[in-house]
Structure formats: C-alpha cells, structure tokens
Amino acid sequence: MDSNVFSSKEISFKDGILNGRVIIAGPCTIESYDQLKQTAQSVKNSGADILRGGAFKPRTSPFSFQGLKDEGLEMLKSVRKEVGIKVVTELMDVRDIEKIYDSCDIIQIGSRNMQNFTLLKEVGKLDKPIVLKRGISATIKEWIGAAEYIAVEGNMEVIFCERGIRTFSDCTRNTLDISAVPIVKKLTGMPVIVDPSHAAGRRDLIEPLSLAGLACGADGIMVEVHPQPDMALCDGDQSIDFNGFDELMKKIRRMGL
C-alpha cells in the first residue's frame, strides 16, 4: 500500500491536542461523578494530558454494564470543566453525535465500529480529532482504509490507536502489534498511539507494553485507570490504580520516552 489520502498531505492538529507525546488515562466506564472526578484529578497530577471515560459502552454480553449514557456525558462535561483537562469518549451511534460532540474534545471510534462506514462518514464531517481504534482482526490496509472514510469527508485529524488484534495466543486478551506503529506512521504520516490495557487484558502487562509502544515510536498511550480496579464495573482486570499510573509516568519520564 504505497499511497493514501494522508501520505501526500501535511496534517496539523488544532488546539494543541497532539503536541508531542500524549498520555490518555482514565476509567473504561464512567461509574459515578466522584469516581470520574477523583480519577481525572489524580491522572492529571501524575502527568496525563487527556482524560478517557466511556458513557456508552459496547459489551460482548448484553447483560454487562453498558455505561451511564446521557448521565455519564453530563458528568464528563462537568469534570472536564472543573478539573481543566481535555477528554475523549466513545461514539457508537450516529444518533448520538451531537451530544457526544458537545461533551468532549476528541471522539473515539472503537474497534467494533472500525468498519461502520456510515459512522465514519459522519464523524468525517466534524471538526474534532478522531481516535480510530484498530478492528479486532483488521489488517493494516483495512485500518488505513477505514481512516480514509473519515478523511475524505474533510476531517484529516485522525489518530490511529493500536489496541491489539486477535491471534492464537491465550495468555493475553489480544496481541499488541508493535510493528503496526512504525508501519502506519510511515505509510500515513499520522499519529499512532497504543492501548496496552485492551491489548493485554491484564494489569501486570500495562507498564511493559506502554514502554514498548513508546520506545518504538508511538505518539502516546491510552491507559485504563480506576481508583479501585477490583471493584470496577467494566474491565477491572486491565486497569491500574492511581499509584500504578503514577509509577508508570515516573518510569516514562526517567526513560525519556
């Protein structure tokens, strides 16, 4: 794949959203106002640039916690203002575009929607950066093709997120494709971040995968952080607590990543 809509263009992100390495951290799912504000303040103090928090959550089982939805978005807007931190949240449905747009600085398209072409076209008409997560079994060519659906509508501010792909390994939730980072950067010239939490599915691997991603050229990481991971309503096994995130940030700084 020698050329794409990104490769021949100079792209700059507005409002300093992506000015050097970016650290995105926060809970997989917004559970309460106190949980979100406490997490936002803690990760910001440790050096995070952007707060992540899901109000609408796609879950494998319909009986799992699906998020607080509109109530969660209101919490996100309040915490965003009170703590003074940029936020990213996931958009799942074109019907929710307007309220998601008003609640965040960056819109995330999750792996399950990477080839939801109707959704991609609609966010392509927006003027906010889009984090596009790689599909669970998507090739790099398919991933870039999905990003082009956004770009051809006018929105060139796409951030690729490598979050692990499905392989034969049974030791982790997914397999983080480190090689995708330099390949996608070379092919598109666009920023690529890694999500070690969804790749590993286990908190003991978040630190090494974060460091590996940054060492191979990733423009940032997206890490799940929760005040009490073992009590989390969603993906607690792949979340770290405040002390764990603070230690990770210290190690990143010590290593000059």
TrEMBL record:
Keyword terms of this UniProt record: Transferase
Pfam families: DAHP_synth_1
Keyword Transmembrane: no
Entry superkingdom: Bacteria
Enzyme class, broadest EC rank: transferase
EC number: 2.5.1.54
Domain DAHP synthetase I/KDSA: 21-250
GO molecular function: 3-deoxy-7-phosphoheptulonate synthase activity; aldehyde-lyase activity
GO annotation, biological process: aromatic amino acid family biosynthetic process
Record flagged with keyword Transferase: yes
Protein name, as recorded: Phospho-2-dehydro-3-deoxyheptonate aldolase AroF
Species of origin: Peptoclostridium litorale DSM 5388
Top-level taxonomy: Bacteria, Bacillati, Bacillota, Clostridia, Peptostreptococcales
Primary gene name: aroF
